[in-house]
Amino acid sequence: MFKSKVMLVALVALLLSVMSGFVIAGDTLTIQGSTTVLPIAQRAAEVYMQQNPEVNITVRGGGSGNGIAALIDGSVDIANTSRFIKDKEVKAAFANGIYPVPHKVAMDGIAVVVNPVNPVDELTLEDIKAIYTGEITNWKELGGKDQEIVVISRDSSSGTFETFEKLVLDGAKVTPTALLQASNGAVAGVVAETEGAIGYVGLGYLSESLKALKVNGVECTNATVASGKYPIARPLFMFTNGWPKGLTADFINFVLSAEGQKIAEEQGYVPLF
Question: Domain containing 136 — which CATH number?
Answer without folding.
Answer: 3.40.190.10
